[in-house]
Amino acid sequence: MWKTCLQCAGRRLLTGVVLVAVGFNVVAADLRSQPREGWYVKGLAGYDEVRGKVDIPPVKDVMIIDSRPAARQFDPGHIPGAINIPDSQFDKLADKLPADKSALLIFYCGGVDCMLSHNSAFKAEKLGYAKIMVYAEGMPDWKERGEGVSVSAAYIKKLIDDKAAYALIDARPRRVAEKGMIPTAINIPDSEFDKHLDKLPADKATQLIYYCGGLDCVLSDKSAAKAKKLGYANVVTYPEGYPEWEKLAGAGAAKSATAAATASADGAALAYGKEKGTVTVESFEKVWKSAPQSIHLVDVRDLREFNAGTIKGAVNIPVDDLDAKVASLPTDKPVIFFCATGARSGEAYDTVKAARADVKAFFLDANIKFAADGSYTMKQK
Fold first, then answer.
1. What is the pTM of this model?
2. Entry's PROSITE patterns (predicted)?
3. Running DSSP on this structure, what letter comes out for residue 70?
4. E-assigned strands of 154-252?
5. What is the arrangement of strands in the sheet containing 315-316, beginning at the earlier edge strand?
6. 176-198: per-residue pLDDT in tens?
7. How far is it, in rounded angstroms, from Cα 202 to Cα 213?
8. Complete edge-to-edge strand list for the sheet that includes strand 104-108
9. CATH 3.40.190.10 correct for 153-249
10. CATH superfamily assigned to domain 2-144
């Protein structure tokens, strides 16, 4: 009896130490398992806390790190947006960690019996990182709760090489996908998802892999969610998408060439880009700086993305709402659409040109990073 009471007291004491949180945070209330010997108890995170830090685009100043081996575990399934630093290669790959030592690092691996994430957390602490957490229940808990799972480029390449049964789906607009897709992929634009259900496999156990224009593109996530609602049981995403594949595999996207020209914007010159309907980043920024009133600038991302940060002075019309609001667009000045990668802005351009020939529509084919204060960085594709 005394032994049993002492054991209970010991468990309560250990739990109390963890809940006091030696460090910057307390253990999340939904932690299912008691801490074990060797765990990184200074910053244990439960599912709810981790879920709040996982998003596409990735949450700023947060890095999710999968400490499992690559080929057999990370590649075929990991938390969306996570990077892979196997604990056995931590020292070799430590340069993948953020330069800012105040960034939040969340390590995870294969569940409560896996020590890899804890081992890596201790190593990161020695490097001077101040905010470290471990999602001890890791990937098994994440999958059990029905959360989205992502795969790597290496996994997709293996499926292609093995001629496996799968469906690889490019969720970008047709005009973008036609410039270059991952081999074996089919194009089902997210905005046309319901129109092309016949392209999906009849067997709902077939693995569906959705991708789009990179970590700033939400189209693959949106399509994956729709496929799950249809009853497909094995739906994953490749968040890094075509930009990473193109870089790793050297697959060049076709570039359509158009002659350089200019468009009048109340006396300021917007220069056409290489792709039909685009204007160059350089000319846009000059006009926007000198005569912002001469342009009607439209952010076609979702409202959540717009509220998190946009170009100051832009209005928000999500691309999915554009058909219903196309009549509101002005005709007395150029209308320029933008998003984070050029995919949705290009789709907006196509939509408006088909519906309103009188609108002087253009779009930015660029990678754009947004800040909450209205500042941004923009890179021409």
1. 0.76
2. RHODANESE_1, RHODANESE_3
3. I
4. 166-170, 186-187, 207-211, 235-238
5. 315-316, 296-299, 335-338, 361-363
6. 999 999 999 999 999 999 999 99
7. 27
8. 83-84, 62-66, 104-108, 131-135
9. no
10. Rhodanese-like domain (3.40.250.10)
